[in-house]
Design the sequence.
């Protein structure tokens, strides 16, 4: 299980009488804008994980809004129109920083230099 999924489950399960929707199954949750979703019926908190790794909690979301998000043709469009700017938001986990392949390039160059016997002139 990914650390992001564990974080979402921990946050949601901290409350008693919590109902968690299992949205990790791609057959159940199909969205390129939202990776995972969980809803706490007691606190009306919607916790969303996005493809970039960011996790946000939206407070005071009614169950019917969550149901509409789940059944929307486009979860991303519904989210932006009916949830994103309407409910109080708290960021639980920031997005992952992009690497742009910099580490791989550096590792490749270093290993190539080491294997060819080249010396680094810098200390």
Sequence:
């Amino acid at each position: 299980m990914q650390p992001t999924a564990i974080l979402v489950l921990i946050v949601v399960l901290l409350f008693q009488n919590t109902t968690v929707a299992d949205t990790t199954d791609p057959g159940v949750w199909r969205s390129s804008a939202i990776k995972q979703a969980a809803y706490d019926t007691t606190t009306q908190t919607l916790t969303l994980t996005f493809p970039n790794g960011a996790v946000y909690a939206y407070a005071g979301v009614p169950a019917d809004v969550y149901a509409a998000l789940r059944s929307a043709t486009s979860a991303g469009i519904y989210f932006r129109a009916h949830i994103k700017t309407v409910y109080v938001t708290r960021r639980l986990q920031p997005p992952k920083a992009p690497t742009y392949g910099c580490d791989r390039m550096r590792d490749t160059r270093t290993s190539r230099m080491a294997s060819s016997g080249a010396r680094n002139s810098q200390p």
